């Protein structure tokens, strides 16, 4: 064997290696099955590998402690408050991209260009088809009405999704009103808040409660799961509104880290995630609402009907989150 590589091999190496070595490292709080189809498609198209670390807890702490040495290029997470926390920790950098600003409406991205929303979801009511009449659920405020006593299920109040809803309630009505609302809602619970959004629908199916709070896309997930399809079929989606306003919305999104060792490739991935193609995958596979105007919702999501999204600014929702958490603890919502 010749110990030295041939000139041809060297040439091939100089040409091929940089392209193949391109990669992006993502810290994701999103479930693997939700983001993998998007990354696979991106790699197919660009040859850029995507390495994902699923960071369920302590994302901000990890990025802060890794500092400049962090291998992460992108952070992908759900919830406006979590996006805001990552930005506040000083571990992200602004992104100037005409593609991103063209694809993502202004209300779904940070004015400071630190985070970009990729999908939206509504926090809605799952209502028993058997025990709740059409038109019975109208507003979030109305969920505190004693007529629902012993009939409501929800995951813990201290979960981000419910903190977002309570923060939006503060944005609309102030903290005092929201405290009273939470007390009323707690008084109506059929059981102690436990489990996830799908677990509450299972409880409705089992006859333990009549309505629950949940995010829209879980309907799609339940319908695709042979064990959960019965739960899904026992309920329908109702889009409550805040009085005189719309249905509570939240986002999933992405931010570029300050350390970003593969910045160019990371930017390509961010732009890809906002493209028609990726937005369609989000719609069809994840049952979320695309942020890019003109990308259709899936037929299933469309079948849930039209609704009016709340126009309260997402940054306001993030701003009121600490107060929402304080109120949840004050009323001992999960106790
Ligand atoms: Fe979720």
The CATH topology label of the largest domain is D-Maltodextrin-Binding Protein, domain 2
Q: Which CATH architecture of the largest domain would you pick? A: 3-Layer(aba) Sandwich
| Shape by Cα distribution | globular
Percent in strands: 15-25%
**Largest sheet, described in full?**
10 strands, mixed
Say how many strands there are. 10
* Assigned CATH superfamily of the largest domain: Periplasmic binding protein-like II
Low confidence ranges: 13-19
Walk me through the structure.
It is a single chain. The chain is an alpha/beta fold. It folds into 2 domains: 3-120 and 250-295, D-Maltodextrin-Binding Protein, domain 2 (3-Layer(aba) Sandwich), CATH 3.40.190.10; 121-248 and 307-330, D-Maltodextrin-Binding Protein, domain 2, CATH 3.40.190.10. The protein is 43% helix and 16% strand. It is built from 14 helices and 10 strands. The protein has helices spanning 7-21, 32-46, 59-66, 80-88, 98-103, 160-173, 175-187, 197-205, 217-223, 229-233, 263-273, 276-286, 299-303, 314-330, and strands at 23-28, 49-54, 74-78, 92-93, 116-128, 152-153, 211-215, 235-238, 249-257, 289-290. Strands 1, 2, 3, 4, 5, 6, 7, 8, 9 and 10 form a 10-stranded mixed β-sheet that branches. The longest helix has 17 residues, at 314-330. The chain is globular, with a radius of gyration of 22 Å. The N and C termini lie far apart (73 Å). 45% of the residues are buried.
